[in-house]
Amino acid sequence: MTKFEDHPTVQWWHQQAAGKHQPSAAVPLNADRLRELCMQAGADDVGFVEIERPAIANQQADILTAFPATKTLISVVCRMNRENIRTTLRSIANVEFHATAEHIDQVARSIVKTLEEIGIRALNPAAGFPQEMDQFPGKIWSVSHKPVAVAAGLGHMGIHRNVIHPQFGNYILLATVLMNAEVTAYTHPIDYNPCIECKLCVAACPVGAIAADGHFNFSACYTHNYREFMGGFTDWAETIAESKNANDYRKNVSASESASMWQSLSFKANYKAAYCIAACPAGEDVIAPFLSDRKAFIQDVVKPLQDKTETIYVVPGSDAETYVARRFPHKTVKLVSNGIRPQSIQGFLFGLQLLFQRNQSEGLNAIYHFTFTGSESRRATVTIQNKTVQVEAGHIGIANLSVTADSKTWLGFLSKQENLIWALLRRKIRIQGSPKLLQAFGKCFPA
């Protein structure tokens, strides 16, 4: 067996190292040259953010878990073709989303490859899917591309929660490259928001996820738009498992729905609606038709999306169910589960603000103290008042209702594997206060 130091590869390296200076990530990269490198790789715009930037402080732990050597984040923008997104034919829109997603992943990969060739370590997390599904339904991504893009000066979030680039509008996808080198100059947020607050995204959204006052209903958007992703797929799979036979399955799932799910599984998961992006006229390259003739723009772009006859997926008892029936009576409402079932108490508490239905909470003003025991010990206060929810660690204020629960039993109750009455009788769940307040609490978070 050849000794380690006599191995040809080892000897080759020593010869190379002796003959030339090794690249060092300690020397900052020239920002202009790095930008040129990224644009040559296919990016339409880029920005640079240092890992210590306060704006991304809440992401640092996840970023450094993915790539502990990270010193700089490169935020990448790639444009989409606008008319492909605006069409009412979802097949065309989805091909555009997926094609651009593949393109931006390749752009980021090309940037990483070039950086590695000059001795810079770098990594490109996925721009979209796949993600870390072992963490579902918690945070399944390593980098939140939107706040990084905002910090990098590539736009600001509109009221529809999409980044609007000052030139390209919201017809963009984002990616992030992590690298272990500093840059001579970093970019910073632009000094205005490209969102013109025209509220066309509010008018176009089929589930009322975007409110005119800026409120965003995550559950409504997630349940419908992502019907063939993640939680919606789980709900569909459980429908199959619970069906007695083929005829019973067909009562719950139409032939077109089965075919659509097959299409998503065979090719790529299809978004049911991205009407907020389609209707947005913001951005220098986009705004001219809207400002030239607003009525014509609404007639040509927004109204076809509003008038489309389609199935809208909503959680029973949700704000979306009421909204669709009132605003879009010609659309078919289908009651489904969003498939979100917390796997931990931390996940339960994290999800409360995302799943809260403010209109279902109207008239409720109460403080809830939760004490979880057993495998996951935790104390928390949930305050619901004036159609808002606030979740805080520990017990704060005077509770209107106190809930003490074995954590495993509580999670089983949420997933409908544990009977609440039986859990109360066994004292696995105990309440102090009116049971009606627990019922009112549940109404705010329909699943």
From TrEMBL:
<keyword id="KW-0408">Iron</keyword>
<dbReference type="Pfam" id="PF00037">
    <property type="entry name" value="Fer4"/>
</dbReference>
<keyword id="KW-0411">Iron-sulfur</keyword>
<dbReference type="InterPro" id="IPR017896">
    <property type="entry name" value="4Fe4S_Fe-S-bd"/>
</dbReference>
<dbReference type="GO" id="GO:0046872">
    <property type="term" value="F:metal ion binding"/>
</dbReference>
<protein>
    <submittedName>
        <fullName>4Fe-4S ferredoxin</fullName>
    </submittedName>
</protein>
<dbReference type="Pfam" id="PF02036">
    <property type="entry name" value="SCP2"/>
</dbReference>
<feature type="domain" description="4Fe-4S ferredoxin-type">
    <location>
        <begin position="186"/>
        <end position="215"/>
    </location>
</feature>
<dbReference type="InterPro" id="IPR036527">
    <property type="entry name" value="SCP2_sterol-bd_dom_sf"/>
</dbReference>
<dbReference type="GO" id="GO:0051536">
    <property type="term" value="F:iron-sulfur cluster binding"/>
</dbReference>
<keyword id="KW-0479">Metal-binding</keyword>
<dbReference type="InterPro" id="IPR017900">
    <property type="entry name" value="4Fe4S_Fe_S_CS"/>
</dbReference>
<dbReference type="InterPro" id="IPR003033">
    <property type="entry name" value="SCP2_sterol-bd_dom"/>
</dbReference>
